[in-house]
Amino acid sequence: MKRFIAVSVVLASLTAGAYVLPGGSILRRMATAREEKRLSAFRVEGSVIFSSTAVPEAGAVLNVPTERTDLQGDGVLSVKIPGRCRFDVSSPESSNKAATVQVSGRKRVEGKELPAVSVLVAQVCALLAQDAGSVQDTKLALEAYLQGLGIDTKRTSLARFGGEVAYVLGDPAEGKPQFWVYKDAFRAARVRYNDTAGTAWDVRFVDYTAPATGDWMPRTVEVWKAGQRVVRFTALKADNRSAVSDKLFTP
Fold first, then answer.
1. Which of helix, strand or coil describes residue 218?
2. Alpha carbons 208 and 201: distance in angstroms, whole number
3. Residue 138 backbone phi and psi in degrees, to 5
4. Distance, CA of 125 to chain centre
């Protein structure tokens, strides 16, 4: 209850006396910012850390011991725009590997599925690899996607995330589906929603200023499930100029 009151006070204090852009304008500016990067493909290599309930899941898939608080492995995110994404997970302790692939919204798994990785891939693909051919079409596609998650894109407010001011699309009450966008740069900050089983997910995009990724990809992507962080992917090396093979996305 105290947390809810604190969040409400922050939202109220930021919004009071400030002009808040409508949802359509926020998404249009976000689409414009992505288009200006002129990205067609990118590859990000880094470390992936599984925590909480994801530790036994990852341990079973990668065949590594799980008597620990966190389980660390290697992750590779490969993206071809529009809408083709792949995340490969491996561990130095085992020869086992797993991958989640998404193409035009359709998911495919190689090996056994890691649910939190599938969530990461779905949100990265929808929010960072969206290109419907024009700024307006991309804006409409983003709007439809967010509404499909139960987010009221016509309702907007302001809040703080990671020390920065962000626009919040959706009901500002704690626990409601929301999409957050960094106010100054119009980059995705976080998306909160419940899946069809009622599980609460919170995917966070942190630090677009790191040398490893520049301003086109956050250095860190975190997946939170029911209030606990279950996956953190941190970029160590990124490339948005080399070609990404189509074979990565085909069965």
1. coil
2. 22
3. -65, -40
4. 8
Within a 10 A sphere around the Cβ of 68, how many other Cβ atoms?
12
Instruction: Quote the pTM value.
Output: 0.91
Measured distance CA(192)–CA(150) in Å, rounded = 10
Cα 47 from Cα 37, distance rounded (Å): 25
Q: What is the 3-state secondary structure (H, E, C) of 51-68?
A: ECCHHHHHHHHHCCCCCC
Query: Which stretches of the chain are DSSP H helices?
Result: 2-15, 23-37, 54-62, 115-128, 135-148
- Asked if omega into 82 is within 30° of 0 (cis), the reply is yes
Q: Which long-range contacts (CB under 8 A, 24 or more apart) does 107-115 make?
A: 108/251, 111/61, 112/60, 112/61, 113/61, 114/50, 114/54, 114/57, 114/58, 114/61, 114/89, 115/54, 115/57
Does residue 172 carry a pLDDT above 90?
yes
What would the pLDDT profile of 189-219 be if each residue is shown by its tens digit?
999 999 999 999 999 999 999 999 988 999 9
